[in-house]
Specification:
3 copies of one chain form a homotrimer.
Chain A: H1 14-27, E1 32-34, H2 41-46, H3 53-57, H4 62-70, H5 87-99, H6 108-120, H7 132-143, H8 150-157, E2 159-166, H9 173-179, E3 188-192, H10 195-198, H11 205-216, H12 223-239, E4 244-247, H13 259-270, H14 276-297, E5 300-304, E6 307-308, H15 313-319, E7 327-328, H16 338-344, E8 352-355, H17 360-370, E9 376-378, H18 388-402, H19 420-440, H20 446-457, H21 459-464
Parallel strand pairs in A: 1-2, 2-3, 4-5, 5-8, 8-9
Antiparallel strand pairs in A: 6-7
Helix pairs in contact in A: 1-19, 1-20, 6-19, 11-12, 13-14, 17-18, 18-19, 19-20
Chain lengths: ~475, ~475, ~475
């Protein structure tokens, strides 16, 4: 039997814990600002009940399924790629999670799930083979309840804005529908995510470029038209509330090409003739172009680079992407971002928020850059690094060079809707704990720490992401 | 005067220390599982008394001699390369250690030696010029005693299995002799260590390949015969109790070659005509082949890559290898291991345990891979990183992504027989301390922590190394 | 109202804090040994009053101005590049610092400034818009006082030796003047800093080489003459008290060229014909040559490599170098330094002190090298890493491999004269805290920790830098 402990994730030292409690207490009731994530907006537009515990908490969350897979559960036995699961199948998936609950020890996944189950669904037993059915039933019963529909949870979670990435060709009708729905007072906005249009090596790039042209009503048969189409779609996103554009490539290089070279490669790529080196050069050039457009139209530019996507091709072929088989790469930013920063680094209003899965760059590259360029912000820990000790390493690595005002404020980056409050609370607790240490080491006064804790939650993300 | 403190290496915080004490207490009496190391098996087969304190604790242990060398002691003055030392020489070597004892402050070497001297030999004075002779005498007196012969110490140390690397051409007679000795109830098994046969750039590679052919009774003049010989020697090791094959190369790349290309380079290399690039390509191909063989025969594959061996060639020319002049290299695994993982990553029963001296890969590459692939395990801290704070960094970096079940369990990797209990105890204390912090931060319940602490010591290494 | 807290920067845990207090207390009164830095020696030779608080504490200190710039203050609004500021301008610069004081939270800059203001100038109010004028006036009043002239502060700071880098062509007259001044009993010595003469890609390299020839009275039109000129200037520095030569290049490679190849590139470079690759090869060769010269003449060789200088060319074009726009690069040392270490690694009296902004190399490369080669010392945290938590990471990363005797002892590396005591005190407090943890974890006895703490402050830097 358990309830999540009120002191969870606070420092062990009694003096620091007391300070952390006070700092956290002052932020615990503040709304959740969500500047970047992947929740399906249709969820809130449709406001249908969630179907079952497994489909809500297991199957779509690659943080959860990947560890079960490593422990020997086949992806098909987790319901992946099977659409809506019959109850027996959902129950079996849930049971697999419960039986293997011990493997999640020390992971934030365990922590988030425990918080979700306890605080949202009132579950108080530890997951195990013995409690599998009862906990499934308890969550399932709640899901049938009106109070557990997406919009009700959005209210209950106290979310003030929810940003979700969308394809540049998306008509954003779901966002418009929500925006104009008189029965809905939340705020859900899209983020422009154009990766597939910027990488000629992506499968069916030709087709994507044609679709982009149709969406923008521009002929993308020429490089000039292609650029116009991207600019046009960015404006379309802006007019639907977007404040940011998000980019994820294997590296972060931004070497610009001359116009004629860009044009030449673009035509080669459309004809299917571009070499791999040309495709990469074009992608890097386009990242530079995205920065230029951000200076022109004001969309905040966020980078999530340095991942080998679909590291296990057989699984990708069978189950698609985003199944937990993406593995980080070592990455460098100092030289990679230099072309963009030389040109736009002190451009008024340009915001470049850089996330990383390679934590070595925090103290070595990102903090030093954010400590000179007014445009650069260090993104908070992302994905594998969005975890208690890693968050502590982040603050320790970054704060000494740039304090707190050059960091992004918390970003949940999740597709697991119900995990949002737990993720925000985890970050708030850890920032409170970090600040408590500074106070106890006489590096900061407690009134200053309290102001910083609150600003990291509300002010900082709003300023950085122009919300 | 000292006895090693019962609370050594536990967290300073009183609450955490109390939990750590309890967790450690429950593992302190468990046997030592040793899945990988370099103790000479002849030691136990012959069961002769150790000759003297310096030859036991100083001369053969490059952890010890390297720091003395850095402090200005010539390697010849440490007895290196001189065979059995006369008593005066041994006493002089011991004195050099004692005089410079202060340089070992904060190192695990100090901690291990202190524990060995105190707990095995009853020494209670701090080493120094003043205590050099007395401590030498005290240890020497014990060494003459029957109770301090290798087999008696093996029993006293409570070792359940001791794995030691062996050359593929080794006839393993020593292991057989031990195995069939009715007066001996321990378990000493070989690990297959074929590096020199896989790297055409190794000195006298031709000669090695010929010897390999003789050992396997296969003509290794062709690539096909060479592969057969390796497969045959692996089977021979399996039949002598081996459960793992160990590999150490400068990098971990595993790019396979086509058969005809592999055959072509093999013949060039035998003829002494292979370029450096070809030699490297062949070595990487062979690492892929080793994974294939592991899938076929079940030997656990362990990697100890990323070291520049014999960094100081003049010392290597004079004193040989393994004298403390190996220096780690930056390394990457995400792309390096991809070919092997694409092909064998979810092969049933394939175990790939990856060790590193580059701690940046723990959170960035190894934990994410071990959190998806059922075959991949993250090796515990190795060599320079087998040290208290580094072990803490390891658990902090890895556990949040993969918990504890995707790690290897403790591996002592030592050639210093008497350091084995101290090394295991150090790891147990540090894991207890790490778990105690999780409990005190309400991230884990104490009963869960206790189960994990015990499993890391017994269950996990047995499963991972198929012992 | 504040006074800096007597327990600042000590560990939070009460037991550790008590030990840290005792360890620090024993070093707090010891003199400041300054083996490397960038204070203008003319300051002490002229002994003129400092002009105003902004020119003393803000404008010339890129640690301070870079964060203000990132927060949106233009460099021209900080007085950069404007020579002596009129009082109104100085006051405005000071106000900009005060208004944005909050952005420095958690940075060592805040900590140093607070300590300087409080302990040197008696300021007890927190900086803010409200206190800007009063604090400006308070500091300005003191600056007019005889007791706040540079020489008086040098005495008050208890500096025993102050090393400052100088150009190889410098006539070192300022150092001579100080040395022969009967009214001055301090010690200010130059360090040889030849970067611009070793990199053919530097602007106006030809001109530099000609000036070098004039300074040495040697014809530098040939490679042989160039080498002779460098050797001659090193001797000149030695005769003026220098004990070290300092080097800062983008990487640390030391691959030697044959004499004829070096000669060929040298002549190409003089003629403006060297390719970029040749210029880099020559620079790396010259770093090897510098090591050779250090073996010959005894100057300690210090490396500060791995920085992309002038990362933002528009700012460099406008304001010059050293304005806070240098960004660290990933770097490797194991292979880079191998040529030098193969040849000179065990040369008697050769000292190679390696600093880094890439903290990943501490445990992976530098500590392992310093733990074998008697010539190699690991430099303490430099620049962005000279900060409380980073210093803790340094000790944790390095000590377990090489203890304390293979590290450099504290180096302030500053051009901010008044920050010297605060920087030394910060390091002493953090080392005391680190040692206190080892004592509390029973890894070291307190008497040993006390000896180490004192040695790190006085003995170690004196030995390593041959002071």
């Amino acid at each position: 039997m358990f309830n999540v402990h009120p002191d969870r994730l606070f420092p062990a030292d009694a003096n620091q814990r007391g300070i952390a409690r006070r700092l956290h207490g002052a932020t615990a009731g503040l709304p959740l600002v969500c500047p970047h994530g992947h929740v399906e907006p249709r969820l809130l537009a449709d406001n249908q009940p969630f179907s079952d515990p497994a489909s809500l908490l297991v199957t779509p969350d690659h943080y959860v399924t990947r560890l079960l897979h490593a422990d020997g559960v086949a992806l098909e036995d987790l319901g992946i790629g099977q659409g809506r699961l019959p109850e027996a199948a959902a129950r079996a998936v849930w049971r697999r999670l419960c039986e293997r609950w011990a493997i999640f020890a020390a992971t934030p996944v365990r922590w988030w799930l425990e918080a979700e189950l306890n605080e949202i669904f009132g579950v108080t037993s530890r997951l195990s083979a013995e409690t599998a059915d009862a906990t499934f039933d308890q969550v399932a019963t709640h899901l049938a309840d009106e109070a557990f529909r997406p919009r009700a949870l959005y209210e209950r979670f106290n979310i003030s804005v929810l940003t979700t990435t969308a394809d540049p060709c998306d008509d954003l009708a779901v966002y418009s529908a929500l925006d104009s729905d008189p029965s809905w007072s939340g705020r859900v906005i899209p983020a422009f995510r154009p990766d597939r249009y910027l990488e000629p090596s992506q499968p069916e790039w030709n087709h994507s470029i044609r679709r982009l042209g149709e969406a923008a009503d521009v002929d993308t048969g020429s490089y000039r038209g292609y650029i116009e189409a991207l600019e046009s779609r960015r404006r379309y996103f802006l007019s639907h509330g977007a404040t940011s554009a998000d980019h994820s490539h294997p590296d972060a290089r931004t070497d610009p090409l001359g116009d004629s070279e860009a044009d030449r490669i673009f035509r080669s790529a459309l004809a299917g003739d571009a070499t791999q080196a040309e495709a990469i050069a074009f992608r890097r050039h386009m990242l530079f172009e995205m920065a230029r457009m951000s200076c022109d139209d004001g969309l905040v530019m966020t980078l999530h680079c340095g991942v080998r996507r679909d590291h296990h091709p057989p699984s990708a072929a069978h189950f698609g992407s985003d199944i937990g088989a993406d593995i980080p790469l070592q990455i460098e930013f100092t030289d990679a971002l230099r072309p963009v920063l030389e040109r736009f680094g002190i451009h008024p209003g340009f915001h470049l928020v850089v996330f990383t899965l390679d934590e070595t760059v925090w103290s070595r590259e990102l903090a030093p850059m954010a400590g000179f360029y007014p445009s650069v912000y260090v993104g908070v820990p992302w994905w594998f690094l969005d975890a208690p000790d890693a968050i502590g390493r982040f603050r320790a690595a970054v704060s000494e060079t740039v304090g707190f005002t050059r960091t992004s404020g918390f970003v949940d980056d999740t597709r697991a809707f119900c995990s949002i409050p737990a993720r925000h609370d985890m970050a708030r607790r850890l920032d409170a704990g970090f600040l408590a240490r500074l106070v106890s080491e006489h590096r900061l006064d407690e009134d200053e720490a309290a102001a910083i804790a609150a600003d990291l939650v509300i002010g900082q993300p709003a300023r950085v992401f122009k919300l």
